[in-house]
Amino acid sequence: MPCPGKVADMAAEIVAIDRQEPEKAFSRCRDVIRSGGVIAFPTDTFYGLGADPRNAAAIERLFVIKGRAADQPILLLLPDAAAVRAWASSVTAEAERLMARFWPGPLTLVFSARPDVLPQLTAGTGRIGLRVPGSEMARSLLAYLESALTGTSANRAGGPDPRSPGDVLGQLGDRIDLVLDGGPAIGERPSTIVDVTGGRPRIIRQGAIAEETLFP
Question: How far apart are CA 99 and CA 85, in angstroms?
Fold first, then answer.
């Protein structure tokens, strides 16, 4: 059983997904996450690090695992767009348009966070990045958990983007608790990040979706 707040000192457990019966693997992920653990799982971009975004100790451990600076926020992956209002204090009409057109998909939208969102996730900015991933497997996991998960890349800060379980193990194999092996991630670029907290959306990071596609 993982110890919250402490980096693992053994190799991560590897759980392969049976595509005919994924619930068995999902159940093991749920056990780890509920105990404060950290998993790696495939998304539509790269493998991500999943932890319970309501568990402060798990989020602190996530920063240690990645070697990530405290002033860097952590985005969340959602099972569907309906989950946005559990994390965002307001949703503008332009945000609704972008959600309707590009979710599920590689677009992260930055909203004003609800007051109960952990400040570690927002890096003290009061803003939270949210995304519904294009990967059906990732959405199925999130729906099974009935929860959001953190979605930062499963690498050390500044390390190469992880496209396979082997990539994850090479960087974090003795630091995380479980790798959900769903085969290679298909993404070539990270998600595009757009701030929708103001009157006019603003691109923070250019990624898989080009500016001219977002704002034709």
Answer: 13
Percent of the chain with pLDDT over 70: 96
Say which residues have a Cβ less than 8 Å from residue 93's Cβ, sequence separation at least 6: none
Position 215, amino acid: F
Could you tell me if 40 and 185 are in contact, meaning their C-beta atoms sit under 8 angstroms apart? no
3-state secondary structure of 148: coil
Cα 190–chain centre separation: 12
Q: How many Å separate Cα 59 from the centre of its chain?
A: 12
Report which of 165, 187, 190 is spatially closest to residue 178, judged by C-alpha positions.
Answer: 165
Q: Give the three-class secondary structure for 178.
A: strand
Task: Give the CATH number of domain 13-214.
Answer: 3.90.870.10
* All residues at 6 or more sequence positions from 136 whose CB lies less than 8 Å from its CB, including other chains: none
Sign of the C-alpha dihedral computed for residues 61, 142, 147 and 195 taken in this order? positive
Cα–Cα distance for residue pair 42/216, rounded to 1 Å? 30
φ/ψ (deg, to 5) at 139 = -65, -35
CA–CA dist 112, 163 (Å, integer) = 31
Which pLDDT band holds residue 88 (cuts at 50, 70, 90)?
very high
- Asked if 32 and 198 count as a contact pair (C-beta separation under 8 A), the reply is no
